[in-house]
Amino acid sequence: MYFNLRHLNLFSSYFAIGFSALSSICIMYAINHYSGVAFYGDLMFYLSMSTILFTFFSFGTRETVTKILKYHDKDISVLLSGVILDLFSSFIIICIIYFFGEKILIFFQKYTANNLHISKLLAVYTVFFICQSSFIGFLKYYNKILIINLASIFQNIVNALIIGFYILNDNTTQSAIILAYVVSVFCGLLFLIFGVLIFLNFKFVKFSNKTFLNSFSKLYELSRLYFWASTGKIGVKNFENILLMKFLGSEAVGIYQTLLKILSPINLMTAPIGSNYQKIMIDYYHDNKYKKLKELIFRITKIVLMITILYIIIAMVFVDLYLDSQGIHNIEYSTILIFFLGVLSLLQSSTWWAGNFMICHFPQIPIFTNIISSILNILVPFYSLYYYGDKGMIVFLISIVMSQVPAYIVPFYLFRNYLKGEKSTII
């Protein structure tokens, strides 16, 4: 029964990620075709700002709730504790956007009359996204991956339908498109809430003040470490869009994100693996089965890397045709750009296990690696664009690769040492 359920979850995860990738590619094609690559660049810039807020202020309840339920099985107080932390994160984001949102957008981008309205929409979008976290963590522990994936599919359907409606009615303003993202992520949140209620048969399984205080204390301690690790990670992902917008403008962001989309099938392959094997890795760790844990990770990683290399070669061959189909012509060194993006994809796919596993079992390590990685990912591209920005995006991508390589090497080295027998004493 467990074997069948695991494979059903894995299949549904691949389908959900694939549907999400297909949806985002269709939206990209439509926007690039009807509104231009610069408009798409602006949209990606706004969404990157939201992702940075989520990264900076999230308590990581998607992972930590799953971890704490190992000690408080079938206890609704763990979910409630996670929701409280998510709401606290949301309150901080609302305050920041209210006081500084418009100023931040103006600093990185030219002034527009809608900056204040857009900043408010981004705050709401980020809040709804954060509030999904605890429900996802709760459902993951009980292997209800199917509910999570159905929520993702439903969210993407709503988003694509609303954006399609706006495009057909010639209402492709930034505010309208971002509003579509807000509505869709809210629908995804509602789906997850009802999914949890259905799983619980609309009954609270177990709750008491004592267990609530105990679970909240444990969750807070682990989430606090995740918060610092997440804070240190602020420069790791999406900050490159901010730097590109500042130095090269909207069109450069749009081209960069369009090139990234051709490699999105690699994420389709690797993203579900960590979620579906998280509980198995937790069990191996707590049962001191380090050898099995290592064999599992290395076996899957070898397969992932072989497929990733093959796909990157195919992408390099067809990149010009891919860009021409969207009305984007005469991009210099497009094949070389895909090569450097492919190197990043190789690094990312080889560490599919790191995010979920390291924060649950070795939570000190991401704090160190994320801080170093953020410093490198901000300073190296910044100075590259500042002094050599006239050379275009190729210099930028070389600097990104140079800055990220150390951050991927460190987890492998430290993880190998931990597998020799050390255990985390955080919980």
TrEMBL record:
Main location: membrane
Keyword Transmembrane helix assigned: yes
Residues passing through the membrane, by range: 12-31, 37-57, 78-101, 121-139, 146-168, 174-200, 303-323, 335-355, 367-388, 394-415
UniProt keywords, alphabetically: Cell membrane, Membrane, Transmembrane, Transmembrane helix
Localization per record: Cell membrane
Membrane topology value: Multi-pass membrane protein
UniProt-recorded name of the protein: Polysaccharide biosynthesis protein
Annotated organism of origin: Aquirufa novilacunae
